[in-house]
Amino acid sequence: MFLTELLTISKVNYIMKQQFNIFTYTTLLITLLLLGLSNLQAQNFNEIIKAVAADREVSDNFGHSVAISGNYAIIGAVSENDDVAGANYMGAAGSAYIYERDGSGNWIEKQKIVASDRDTLDQFGYSVAISVNNVIVGALWEDENANGSNTLNDPGSAYIFERNGLGNWIEKQKIVASDRGDTDRYGWSVALSGNYAMVGAPYEDEDSSGSNTLGNAGSTYFYEYGWPIGLTENSFTDNFIYYPNPTDGNFTIEFDKTQENLTIRLHSISGKLIKNISYQNSKTIRLEINNPNGIYLLEIMGNNESKAVVRLIKE
After folding, report:
1. What homologous superfamily does CATH list for 62-224?
2. What string of H, E and C letters represents the secondary structure of the chain?
3. Which CATH number among 2.60.40.3080, 1.10.1040.10, 1.20.1250.20, 3.40.50.2300 corresponds to the domain 230-314?
């Protein structure tokens, strides 16, 4: 009906209405743009703290690299010389500092981390990245492979740290390029998101097949983090099965014999207790996990200090 009515008005009135509509729309767009700019101006980043290392020294270069994820941040100090205890001096071995945002909004230095095989001039902390409970730290002048052998001239490496249930950041893995070579500078840049990591080597020479050498053409290496799932600990004498894993949220535990007393505790990967349920004279336990997708630790505790731990994934 509305379209039919528009067809019956004169051409002059139609043009005038169109011009009015254009003017109205233009005015509205300008108004919205000005309001948007006003809002942007009102939403500036405000400095809340200046962070320095608790053990700061001359020429540590604290702040050479920075990254932040949620309530955690990491800061690299490439020329820092001492280990986590402030001892074992090695010139420019490098370190990184992890900060945590507390309940009051304050950023607190929680831990200093260094490479387990730190050495002079490794420059651990040249690059850093953080995602949830994992960090990756580049050491572009580091010389040895993941096993601490096969020394080359500055091929570079990177280190993965994981936050455990006690809130401590533990070195989990050292990674190097599969085709590492002298002066590749692997670890110059790093990135981390969820289960994926990237490490840049801007002075690497070969293509992806290891041929077609071009001086300092550069390359980047992609990694996928494979979480081990399943039974990680078990002292039960009675057999049991659990399924499915991964799960959509519905999870079952079946014992071959009735258990007099059972306690089931579900923890997040960071150690937070989510469920704590007791059962008596049970053979089959059915659980529903209503929390977001992710990795969880399931503790199964029975009589005589029997205990099993299952790492499970909800997806």
Report:
1. Integrin alpha, N-terminal (2.130.10.130)
2. CHHHHHHHCCHHHHHHHHHHHHHHHHHHHHHHHHHHHHHHHHCCCCCCCCCCCCCCCCCCCEEEEEEEECCEEEEEECCCCCCCCCCCCCCCCEEEEEEEECCCCCEEEEEEECCCCCCCCCCEEEEEEEECCEEEEEECCCCCCCCCCCCCCCCEEEEEEEECCCCCEEEEEEECCCCCCCCCCECCEEEEECCEEEEEECCCCCCCCCCCCCCCCCEEEEEECCCCCEEEEECCCCCEEEECCCECCEEEEEEEEEEEEEEEEEEECCCCEEEEEEEEEEEEEEEECCCCCEEEEEEEECHHHCEEEEEEEEC
3. 2.60.40.3080
Block means of pLDDT (10 residues each) for the chain, 315 residues, are 33 41 56 56 83 96 95 96 96 97 92 97 97 92 93 96 86 94 97 89 93 95 79 86 90 93 87 90 93 87 88 84
- pTM equals 0.64
